[in-house]
Design goal:
With about 725 residues, the chain is α/β, with parallel strands linked by helices. It contains 29 helices and 28 strands.
Length: about 725
Amino acid sequence: MNNTQTHYRACNLCEAMCGLEIQVEGDTVLSIRGDKADPFSQGHICPKATALADVYTDPDRLKRPLRRISIGWEEISWDEAFSAVIEGIRRVQEKYGRNSMGIYLGNPNVHNLGLMLYNAPFIRSLRTRNRFSATSIDQLPHHVAALLMFGHQLLLPIPDVDRTQFMLMLGANPLASNGSLMTAPGIERRLKKLQARGGKLVVVDPRRTETAVLADQHIFIKPGMDALLLLALIHTLYGEDLLNPGRLADFTDGFDEIAVIAADFAPEQVASRLGIPAETIRQLARQLAGVESGVVYGRMGLSTQPFGGICQWLINVLNILTGNLDREGGAMFTLPAFDIVGLTAMMGSTGRFGHRQTRVRGLPAFGGEFPVSALAEEILTPGDGQIRGMVTVAGNPVLSAPNGRQLDKALAGLEFMVSLDIYRNETTRHAHIILPTTTGLETEHYDLVFHALAVRNTAKYAPALFPPAEGARHDWEILQELRNRLENRYEADRSTMLGKMDFQRRLRPDQILDLALRFGPYGANGSNRGKLNGEGMKLRLLKNGPHGLDLGPLQPILQERLCTPSRRVVLVPETLAADVARVKAELLAEDGEAEEGQNGRYPLSLIGRRQLRSNNSWMHNSPRLVKGKNRCTLLMHPSDAAARGLTSGQTVKVCSRVGEVELPLEVTEGIMPGVVSIPHGWGHNRPGIQMRTAQAHPGASLNDLADDQRVDDLTGNAAFSGVPVEVTGGDGEIRS
């Protein structure tokens, strides 16, 4: 008798939301394929999706709570674990004050329905100001620009790649990332269609990435100099009378001010700093202004540099000046079925920036979180408010935050630490208690965040494929229990109006999701109900459509969504405009240097790179994703290798101000002279972890070289791109 069943869901291992068709028999996954009936991904799949089965069956994955003891680790019951966690947190806070506890949320949180819905009330129950997340090592500059220009941190412009005629892409490699802050499954197919309809793709990047190879034009640029290029493009638009904001002029303020700001950045003035001819810059501006629709898009290479905030602001400015914001084929805004922007705006929670600063260095807070670059020093520096205990949720900051070795040392000295995680990894090995969660195929799934970042409005829900293992707990159940025990007032709240409105106490994730869908823009009373043939959106509708629902292309909606006090776009926010002085001083001045020591002890600029089979450190414990040749190599241009007497394949030492690593050298003309590259997420050579496949393919951690003192001064985001380094042979001798 054939007991094979077919299950449909969206992959939650990166931002693309690719639809999957999973064949199972009993508790065994037979195959994972792309779902051709998914209206959004249309059968596209990448190698990572198959790792969902690997994670589910991984013998290294934790399934019972662990307690660290003098001779290693021991399994304990859930009640023992919860009691130990509450006792540890209370002990630290009673001794040192409530801000002595810190919390860090890793990247997988945004890929998880339960964590997205239940993290906030748990964090509030900790009553600490010391909150950190992966936001400040990734996309924080996007949120700051959105908040200051549009009034809401999540009003993020998304490239309408399916309808644009010209795409200028800076510091992004969607063929490896599958799209980042641009959820676009099958992005290679979408970009080829752009070219097939007569459009053009231009990539600006220090490396000839997979996307740059596909592009019609690739332009090398020195790392960290993108702000100069963007200002020169704006200068050209004004100088050659190429402005055409169209309808945006009716609700945008600041056109005269931005002209003054860009006046000092003529292409001829910045060309030598960029390594790009002035005429090439002018041609880019003319192309962007001359097409029927175009869009400028910038991602990690721009966000993770000392001028990330300015770069993301200027990208929005360019799209506005050319009339390409909030129009078909330009940079548009989503209207998702679970409308996070609408719900949070209704509650007055649109984002806050700079209202608090870190204790040691004074870095700005955003949205209630401090930059993770400050985490180690907040643990290591004595004084009132010093962090003495930590909670980590689905995060591995030892490998993802700058100066990982310093953070490693800091975590080792904590008085108490608890981690919600499925692995004993480089970070959780320091925990006193590890609380493992169900994951992937054992959980229901709906992408709260990535439907809000998609190039098309869609909605898709999937129930859990497999039941949890006996005694296992969902992450939201763990957070709910910890919160209840911390607050110790559950019974009292149940009878109050506050308790009745506390959805995370009373409802499961699917029930909260159903409510949000019903009261969203496609619900029974929503303005877009007609897209569902008059039937209001509800969870039952999604359950009956396992391939997902197509809610149509993005539409111009910015004017109705604006959350600024004036209900107008602020083209030149005062905070961002003031930071241009730093660009002049550090990038444009004749005697200025982007980095101290750039031409001295550390003459090379280190950048990261994304790989299709690697999204975070979890992926490195999947045998099928790490098999083959070693992908953790240092890329270097032939001229730089020859100058140092280095050859491909040899082990080299890379040194920065904060550390050094050794890894194989890969000589290639695909990277510009003076620049080297290491992929992120590797470095599984620390003792005490239990990820056997990853340990067999350890690689080297890029972030053991990244400097925690090197940040975007404006936003506090970590500046990984352009780290000054030197490369020598394995014997440590610099060869001239």
